[in-house]
Write the structure tokens for this entry.
Amino acid sequence: MTGTILQINISPGGIPKRPIDEAMVTADGIRGDAWAHPQFHGGPNQALLLITSEGIAELAAQGFPLYHGALGENLTTAGLDRRQMRAGQRYRAGEVVLEITKRRSPCSTLDVYGPGIQRAIFDAQAKANDPSTPRWGLSGFYARVLTPGVIRPHDIITLVDQVV
């Protein structure tokens, strides 16, 4: 599975995250990025949040006013099939190697984009780790950083290994 990094996003905390031209990625995430609620977000197992542009487009087509970075993702990708993404997969993006650790569970912070967005991106099947749900991966995937380095928009992101 191969795609492209469309946009790299950071914020001083909270959503939306805004685009940057390049990112220095460490085990703690992207330098300059922060979380409004660090008790729930961030840390080594949630250093990065990836969301597919295709998923954002699906939600926008349902009437949610979304754009790249709106859902708080650090990496907006194109070409990766969110329905095939799983914990334990390792990806190379630019100089960085990252490992998907888990799906993101949506929170009320996303309600700013309209009532029902949480139900649109997450259902009982997703909560039960059932990838057959049409909502699989719409909320994004957290990743840990195995190899730090630089990522830029237009870098290739490709699946290199599956550890589970």
The two ends are 16 Å apart (CA to CA). The first strand starts at residue 2 and ends at 10. The helical segments are 53-61, 117-121, 124-127.
